[in-house]
């Protein structure tokens, strides 16, 4: 039986958790409470006058076609970004495990892009896919493909997904590599002796054992697509063309800081927070049931 650890000083445990509690209260609960309070106010752009309107801002926001469009754009963008980032990262992790020489060097090269700031990553792809001078755009035109993310909403969304996925692939790659290293080699060798091919070994042994890692990355990538891609959207498309790439987090910024609709922007931030919390809860409630921790 494991002996129970007892702190001789009763105050010490509270002192140890006090910094984390203070950070959580100051940087999460207090801003969340302020946003909830401001979402129920009707304010002028300069904040000189305010009126308590209860849930009128929420009703107004949810009735706007532009906000419904932002929800649709965010769903498409989030699903595509998570699928591409996780799929490519898993493929690269599996291929990196097959490298015999300089394996550490290749892994380091794959991790480097994660250190790039979102805005810088967005500008990088903006230049590469620029319809006039971009090297990739020129190559696409030579292949006979029409490419114009400035005027075509579909092209703009593709560019945004590619840029956001590229930024997240390194993070996913790191965890998939760790997950692959934790899989006992004896299981794969036994399956190979039994005549199972490489593809069958992956889908019947490797991928099921990566379920905990995949579930964790699914939650992280969903949160990333909803919140952390603001810099990429702002740098690459600015929500255009014609609101085709205006995600929920970018609409919060656009209405609050550009159009100075403070109450509406606060209401949108509260709705966005509720959506992400609900999605995370659904993932833990239903998706995690299929995850095997063993």
Automatic annotation (TrEMBL):
InterPro entries annotated for this entry?
MetI-like (IPR000515), MetI-like_sf (IPR035906), UgpAE/MalFG_permease (IPR050809)
Q: Which domain of life is it from?
A: Bacteria
Q: Name one Pfam family in it.
A: BPD_transp_1
Q: How does it sit in the membrane?
A: Multi-pass membrane protein
Protein's UniProt keywords contain Flavoprotein? no
Q: Where are the transmembrane segments?
A: 12-32, 75-96, 108-129, 156-180, 201-220, 257-282
UniProt cross-references to SUPFAM superfamilies, sorted A to Z:
MetI-like
- How far does the signal peptide extend, from start to end residue? none
**What's the stated role of this polypeptide?**
Part of the ABC transporter complex UgpBAEC involved in sn-glycerol-3-phosphate (G3P) import. Probably responsible for the translocation of the substrate across the membrane.
Instruction: Fill in the subunit field for this protein.
Output: The complex is composed of two ATP-binding proteins (UgpC), two transmembrane proteins (UgpA and UgpE) and a solute-binding protein (UgpB).
Q: Which family does it belong to?
A: Belongs to the binding-protein-dependent transport system permease family.
What is the protein name stated in its UniProt record?
sn-glycerol-3-phosphate transport system permease protein UgpA
Instruction: Please name the source species.
Output: Ollibium composti
Q: What is the lineage of its organism?
A: Bacteria, Pseudomonadati, Pseudomonadota, Alphaproteobacteria, Hyphomicrobiales
């Amino acid at each position: 039986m494991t002996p129970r650890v007892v702190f001789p000083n009763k105050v010490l445990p509270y002192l140890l958790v006090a910094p984390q509690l203070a950070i959580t209260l100051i940087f999460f609960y207090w801003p969340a409470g302020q946003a909830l309070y401001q979402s129920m106010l009707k304010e002028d752009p300069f904040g000189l006058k305010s009126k308590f309107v209860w849930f009128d801002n929420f009703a107004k926001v949810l009735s706007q076609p532009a906000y419904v469009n932002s929800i649709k754009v965010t769903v498409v963008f989030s699903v595509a970004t998570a699928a591409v980032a996780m799929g490519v990262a898993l493929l690269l992790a599996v291929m990196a495990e097959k490298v015999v020489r300089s394996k550490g060097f290749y892994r380091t090269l794959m991790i480097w892009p994660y250190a790039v700031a979102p805005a810088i990553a967005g500008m990088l792809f903006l230049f590469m896919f620029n319809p006039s001078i971009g090297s990739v755009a020129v190559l696409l035109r030579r292949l006979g493909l029409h490419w114009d993310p400035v005027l075509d909403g579909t092209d703009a969304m593709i560019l945004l997904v590619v840029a956001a996925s590229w930024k997240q692939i390194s993070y996913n790659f790191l965890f998939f590599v760790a997950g692959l290293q934790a899989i006992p080699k004896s299981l794969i060798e036994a399956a190979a002796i039994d005549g199972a091919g490489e593809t069958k070994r992956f889908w019947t042994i490797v991928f099921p054992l990566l379920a905990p890692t995949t579930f964790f990355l699914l939650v992280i990538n969903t949160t990333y697509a909803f919140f952390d891609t603001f810099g990429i959207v702002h740098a690459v498309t600015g929500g255009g063309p014609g609101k085709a790439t205006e995600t929920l987090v970018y609409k919060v910024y656009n209405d609050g800081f550009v159009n100075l609709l403070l109450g509406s922007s606060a209401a949108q931030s509260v709705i966005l927070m509720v959506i992400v919390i609900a999605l995370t809860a659904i993932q833990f409630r239903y998706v995690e049931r299929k995850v095997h921790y063993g």
